[in-house]
Give the backbone structure.
Amino acid sequence: MNKKKEKRRFIAVCLAPAIILFTVFMIIPTLNVFWMSTLKWGGLSANKEFVGLNNFKILFEDMNFIQALQNTIFLIVVVTIVTMVFSILFASILVREKVKGQNFFRIIFYIPNILSVVVIASIFTAIYDPSTNGLLNSIESLFRPETWETTKYLGDPNIMLYAISGAMIWQAIGYYMVMYMASMSSIPEHLYEAASLEGAGKIKQFFSITLPLIWSNIRTTLTFFIISCINLSFLFVKVFGSGPGGVSETVLSYMYKQAYSNASYGYGMAIGVIIFLFSFVLSALVSKATEREPLEF
Amino acid sequence: MKKLLSVCMVGLMTLSLAACGSGDSGSDEKVLKISGLDGGYGTKGWEEVVKVFEEQNDVKVELTLEKNISETLRPVLTSGQDVPDLVYLSLGAEGRLTDTMVAEKQIADISDVLEMTVPGEDVTVEEKILPGFTEALTSSPYGDGNMYLAPINYGPCGLFFNAGLFEEKGWEVPTTWDEMWELGDKAKAEGIALFTYPTTGYFDAFFSALLNVTAGSETYTELMNYDTEAWESDEVKQAFEIVSKLATYTEENTVANANKESFTKNQQLILDNEALFIPNGTWLPGEMADAPKVEGFEWGFTALPKVGAEGDAYSTAFVEQVYIPSDAENQELAKEFIAFMYSDEAASLFYKYGAPKTDADNNIIEDEYNPGAVMPITTASTKIMSEGDANILFYSVYDNGAKSNPVGFVFKDTVEGVDLTSAEGILYGTVNEVVNGTKTVAEWHASVIEAVKKYND
């Protein structure tokens, strides 16, 4: 009896630091965001005026915010699909096929992930340079009559968002590829041997063995995709600018602008609340939609 | 024993957390805390001025100048603890911390500094500062005649060009907009664009001057007070139309490069003779000092052309600010420091150590400085600058007949979701869309008026 009590107390004491830290640094600030979203406040002074849900009312009529939300959803969809397809493809090639210099490719694909966004941005300004010296524009000029204008990757409102997703995809592929490779290499070899004895080709093997067996991994990464798209796009927009007419503005960059540049911190926090709920709900929906009976091997 | 150990561990963790928060203040010596931006003018000027002030007043000055000051200072100001006594960070600077301070009314009224005598001299601060600076909305943001931000480091903003190219081609620098368009057509024939701009952020100075050119300074004051009728007037529309005409003469890659990462490519266009004019401030020659230039390149600088032969040419006087947060402890000492900043002694030091010199690889050369940072004082061009000084080119723009105009709106309560004046806001940011052709000038003008109306509601 006494021993049990002591054990329980010991567990409580061991957990306490983590719980205290989590409460102080995660739960309280999150609740604070909800509270601050009901204030008209510049963020610096003690002049806080409670305005109820007024910030949200303004928010849903604010076309700049709606545009930013649309752009964010666009980035989540495009970046997720393209990155996932490429990283699964590269991962299965590197794991399943005998490619010369496998490790070399693994490193090459992973390098963009360890570069900081600022470095990536510098690389991509060279790639997207609008003059004929730009990497993409000089390739294009091989196929284009000289009198045609160059492509303005970071200035044309119809292209800019694709240009930013290009940089984000390039950056993300390596990271997800390594994750998929880890779970692919744990699939037992005999499954593939049996399949090829039965006459299944490489593609059939991929869809019937590889994909179902890494499904739980894919589900986890989908949540990662949603979170990282929201976060990373902010950094890219910070360096490339939000483009003419805010064509590449995303929710986080808009929140930052309102909270800090426009001295409306309360309004910014209202945007924060929406982003919080949005990413939560989206992750839950995606997780629900991709639910499958887990396969064991 | 185990239990004791675990309790100790928990205690230690909590302690280490608590330790982060405490500070110490021991001695009685007066300490003046100055925080500010390590910007284009560098830190040496400040260090030297502080040294002299310390000696003369027997006080200690803690000087913190950082590149990302608006990020590091924000939490300090929010907490209200250990607030610096003097802040050097201008309105409109990255992060817009000072603008937020104004909006939150967190800046102390320093009107009485104007009556103080400049240390070591027999004039008051008010007499020493050039006329017009202290009444401008950049110093008196609430438009009530009280000074909250002290003006420092002024410089004209106008159009930079390659004077060598003009000489070579035998072109005259246009004095009216009609001549401007003529020149634009001539240049176009030679494959040179008339105009480019680094980012839309530079339109605050450019467009303010243009509004003064078309509508005059009285209407300009009304505009800066969010007067809807003034914004709807024909003279103001004319300014919008000039920009939209200028848009058709703008170098084609300008918009794509008009971001923080590649704005220098737009500035390079002038050095490469690919564009004629670029709106900018006096720091431009320093910023592009090591960039490759065409042969015979020579900096030229002019005010904005006038409308018709009768009008006035304008050049925005760009000015930086220092201010005292209302939570600051040593406000009196900070005021003394501000008064000292206007002395010839301090102004000469600020000017002498304007900006660190760099070599061809953009490495800073130790102990060598380019003169810069000009205080807006009556002795600026006589005592501070010596004859033959390269900076006289810029500052003489006002002697050549151009009028100076301030930049900035009067303070109004912030409107959520409406961004009129930032680099990417409605008034200046939309220029990108006008140049791109995605917005017409009428749409731009209408959206500005709509935003102005929202501030008045």
